[in-house]
C-alpha cells in the first residue's frame, strides 16, 4: 500500500509542482517566520479551518479521566521487571525506548547520556535509543518490519529484554511529503496509530507511549525530507491519534475494562515546534543554527535543546516523574509563587521559586506549564493564550539526586460574551400607499456574568520516603466577578496505616477543617459562597511510618448552584526501602 501511495505521489506531484516549489520556496536561514502559530498557542484561531490545541475541544491538557488513567499507570503499573517480565523490586528494570527517524535518534542520543548523568534518574530505569536514521513512519507501520528487530538488538546490547519495555517516546514524520493538508497529516496519523499498536504487539508490558511532532524546518521545498508546512502539520496527526483513543475509536484501546488492550496509553510528550526566531508563549525559539545545512536535521545545539526539553518533561510530568525519578533520600523545601494566578487568555505569568536542601546544592529547576511547554529557568515567565486550568509543576533537584515537586494552578478563563441586541421581527410589508415603518430593535438585557469556579488538587511531592510527611493542597478559584452560591465541597482524604490528617494552619485559609477520625477523614469547607475574583486554599498533612508504604490518591470535587461543578485529583507515594536479602 505504501509503495502504491509513493508511486501516485511521484506521478501526481513531483513533476510540475516540484519545479514550481524549487523556484519559489525558501530553503535557507532567511525563513525566520512561516506565519504559523504554534498549535498549543493557536486559540481562538485555526489552521485551514482546523482548531488548535493538543487535545480535544481545543484544550492543551488531557481530559481529567484520561490523565487519571495515565497517572495510575505511572504510579501503580510501571514497576521494575525481570527479563521475563515478572515484578522484581530488587533486580528488575524499567525500560524506556525511542521510536522514530534520524531526527529522533539524534535528539534521543543526546538525551540518553544527559539523563544517565542526572543523579535524580531512577537507578532501575534503562533508556535505549531505538530510533533509526532514514526510517520514517511507514517503516514502522508493519509490526514485523526490520526496524523492530533493530530495536530488539539494541535492547539486548543494553542487557535488557522486550519484556521489560514499559515506556516509549515516539517522534515520526513521512519522508518527502507532498499531499495537501489534511491528506498528508491523515496519512501520517494512520501510521502513528499503527506504531502504537505495534508497540503493544512487540512489547506486551508497555504502559505509556508519549508522542511529539516535528521541530521547525527552515525549508519549504516540496519533495525535500520534511519541509514546512508538513513539519508544522504533523502536530495535527498526533492530536487526532490521541483524540481517537480518548473517544474510543481508531482501534487504540488501552483499558482492559473496555475490551482487548491493543495499544499503550497515549499522550503528548513535549511540543517542539516554534516559528523560527518568533518566541512562542514560553519564549522557546528554533534558530537556523539549530539545524544542519539541509535545514531539516538538528545541529548539536538543536539536539541539546530537544534533550533538555525531554529531561524537563520526564522530571515534571505527572505521568512520568513517578517512574523516572529516584525516591528522595532526604527532604528538600521549596517556596513557589506565581503572579498572577488567574486571568484572561493571553495573561502573562511570572513564576518564582526558591529551594533548599540541607547540606546539598540545588542544581536544577524544571517546569512544565501543562500545555506542552517547559522551562529550565529558576524564575520563568509564561504567556497562557488558551483558556483552561493549568497545573504548573516544578521539580527541583539537588546534587545528591533528591527532588521535590510542587504544583501551582493557573486559571485562564474567558468572560461570557455580552449578547448582541436582538431586533424585533420586521413585519412583511402589506401593499399600501404609505410604507410600514420598521420597528425599533428591542435590546435584550445583558445578563450578569456567571461565576467561573475551578478546583485544583496537588500533592506535596511525587513520592517520599517512609517517615516523611505527605500532604495535599486544594484550591477553589472564582475567576469572574459574580459570587458562586450553594457551594459544596467533597474531599475524602485517603485512609492508610497510621495516617492521621491535620490542617496546616499556616497555609490554609479560614473556613477549612478536617472531620472524622482515621481512617475515615474528610476535608470540609464550611462557607457555601465564594466571592467573585477570589480563591481559597487548604493544605492537609499527615506523618507516615514504615507501615504506611503505598500510593495515596486524593480527589476533591465541588458543586454550586450557579458556577458549575468540577473535580481534581493527585497522588503521592510513600516508599519503603527494599529489604536486603539475607544470605543463606
Describe this structure in words.
By secondary structure, the protein is of the alpha/beta class. It folds into three domains: 278 residues, Rossmann fold; 82 residues, Immunoglobulin-like, CATH 2.60.40.10; 123 residues, Immunoglobulin-like (Sandwich), CATH 2.60.40. The chain has a five-stranded parallel beta sheet, sandwiched between helices. The N terminus and C terminus are likely disordered.
Strand content: 25-35%
What is the percent of helical residues? 10-25%
Q: Which fold does the CATH topology of the largest domain refer to?
A: Rossmann fold
Structural class: alpha/beta
**Strands side by side in the biggest sheet:** 4-3-5-6-7
Distance between the termini: 60 Å
Query: In CATH's first tier, which class of the largest domain applies?
Result: Alpha Beta
Biggest beta-sheet profile: 5 strands, parallel
Search tags:
584 residues; Rossmann fold; Immunoglobulin-like; 3 domains; 8 helices; globular; disordered C terminus
In short:
Helices cover 21% and strands 26% of the residues.
SSE inventory with pairings:
Elements: H1 2-24, E1 46-47, E2 50-51, H2 64-77, E3 94-100, H3 102-116, E4 125-128, H4 146-157, E5 165-171, H5 183-202, E6 208-212, H6 230-246, E7 265-268, H7 300-316, H8 321-324, E8 333-339, E9 342-343, E10 347-356, E11 362-368, E12 374-375, E13 381-384, E14 388-398, E15 403-412, E16 453-459, E17 463-465, E18 470-478, E19 488-492, E20 502-503, E21 512-517, E22 520-525, E23 534-542, E24 550-559, E25 565-575
Parallel strand pairs: 3-4, 3-5, 5-6, 6-7, 9-15, 17-25
Antiparallel strand pairs: 1-2, 8-10, 10-13, 11-12, 11-14, 14-15, 16-18, 18-23, 19-24, 20-23, 21-22, 24-25
Amino acid at each position: 500500500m505504501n509503495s502504491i501511495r509513493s508511486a501516485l505521489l511521484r506521478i501526481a506531484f513531483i513533476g510540475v509542482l516540484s519545479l514550481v516549489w524549487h523556484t519559489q520556496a525558501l530553503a535557507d536561514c532567511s525563513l525566520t517566520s512561516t506565519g504559523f502559530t504554534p498549535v498549543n498557542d493557536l486559540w481562538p484561531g485555526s489552521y485551514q479551518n482546523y482548531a488548535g490545541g493538543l487535545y480535544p475541544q481545543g484544550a492543551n491538557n488531557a481530559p481529567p479521566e484520561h490523565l487519571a488513567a495515565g497517572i495510575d499507570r505511572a504510579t501503580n503499573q510501571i514497576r521494575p521487571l525481570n527479563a521475563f517480565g515478572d515484578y522484581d523490586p530488587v533486580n528488575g528494570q524499567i525500560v524506556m525506548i525511542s521510536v522514530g527517524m534520524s531526527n529522533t535518534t539524534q535528539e534521543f542520543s543526546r538525551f540518553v547520556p544527559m539523563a544517565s548523568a542526572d543523579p535524580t534518574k531512577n537507578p532501575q530505569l534503562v533508556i535505549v535509543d531505538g530510533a533509526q536514521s532514514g526510517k520514517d513512519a511507514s517503516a514502522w507501520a508493519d509490526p514485523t518490519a526490520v526496524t523492530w528487530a533493530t530495536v530488539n538488538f539494541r535492547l539486548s546490547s543494553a542487557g535488557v529484554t522486550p519484556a521489560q519495555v514499559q515506556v516509549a517516546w515516539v517522534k515520526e514524520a513521512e519522508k518527502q511529503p507532498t499531499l495537501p493538508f489534511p491528506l498528508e497529516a491523515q496519512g501520517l496519523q494512520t501510521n502513528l496509530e499503527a506504531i502504537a499498536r505495534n508497540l503493544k504487539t512487540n512489547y506486551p508490558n508497555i504502559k505509556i507511549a508519549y508522542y511529539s511532532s516535528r521541530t521547525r524546518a527552515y525549508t519549504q521545498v516540496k519533495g525535500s525530507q520534511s519541509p514546512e508546512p508538513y513539519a508544522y502539520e504533523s502536530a495535527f496527526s498526533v492530536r487526532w491519534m490521541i483524540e481517537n483513543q480518548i473517544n474510543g475509536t481508531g482501534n487504540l484501546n488501552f483499558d482492559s475494562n473496555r475490551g482487548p488492550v491493543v495499544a499503550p496509553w497515549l499522550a503528548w510528550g513535549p511540543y517542539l515546534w516554534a516559528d523560527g526566531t518568533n518566541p512562542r508563549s514560553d519564549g522557546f525559539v528554533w534558530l537556523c543554527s539549530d539545524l544542519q545545512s539541509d535545514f531539516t536535521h538538528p545541529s548539536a545545539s538543536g539536539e541539546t535543546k530537544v534533550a533538555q526539553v525531554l529531561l524537563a518533561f520526564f522530571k515534571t510530568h505527572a505521568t512520568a516523574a513517578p517512574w523516572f525519578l529516584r525516591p528522595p533520600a532526604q527532604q528538600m523545601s521549596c517556596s513557589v509563587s506565581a503572579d498572577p494566578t488567574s486571568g484572561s487568555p493571553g495573561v502573562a505569568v511570572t513564576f518564582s521559586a526558591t529551594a533548599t536542601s540541607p547540606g546539598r546544592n540545588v542544581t536544577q529547576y524544571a517546569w512544565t506549564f501543562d500545555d506542552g511547554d517547559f522551562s529550565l529557568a529558576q524564575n520563568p515567565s509564561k504567556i497562557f493564550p488558551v483558556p483552561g486550568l493549568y497545573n504548573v509543576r516544578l521539580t527541583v533537584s539537588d546534587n545528591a539526586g533528591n527532588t521535590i515537586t510542587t504544583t501551582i494552578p493557573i486559571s485562564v478563563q474567558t468572560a461570557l460574551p455580552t449578547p448582541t441586541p436582538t431586533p424585533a421581527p420586521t413585519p412583511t410589508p402589506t401593499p399600501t400607499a404609505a410604507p410600514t415603518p420598521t420597528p425599533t430593535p428591542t435590546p435584550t438585557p445583558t445578563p450578569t456574568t456567571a461565576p467561573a469556579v475551578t478546583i485544583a488538587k496537588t500533592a506535596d511531592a511525587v513520592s517520599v520516603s517512609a517517615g516523611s510527611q505527605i500532604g495535599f493542597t486544594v484550591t477553589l478559584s472564582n475567576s469572574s466577578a459574580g459570587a458562586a452560591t450553594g457551594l459544596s465541597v467533597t474531599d475524602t482524604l485517603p485512609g492508610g496505616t497510621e495516617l492521621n490528617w491535620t490542617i496546616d494552619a499556616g497555609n490554609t485559609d479560614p473556613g477549612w477543617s478536617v472531620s472524622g477520625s482515621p481512617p475515615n477523614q474528610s476535608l470540609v469547607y464550611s462557607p457555601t459562597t465564594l466571592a467573585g475574583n477570589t480563591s481559597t486554599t487548604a493544605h492537609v498533612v499527615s506523618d507516615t511510618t514504615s507501615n504506611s508504604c503505598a500510593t495515596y490518591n486524593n480527589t476533591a470535587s465541588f458543586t454550586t448552584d450557579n458556577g458549575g461543578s468540577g473535580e481534581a485529583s493527585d497522588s503521592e507515594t510513600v516508599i519503603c526501602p527494599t529489604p536486603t536479602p539475607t544470605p543463606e
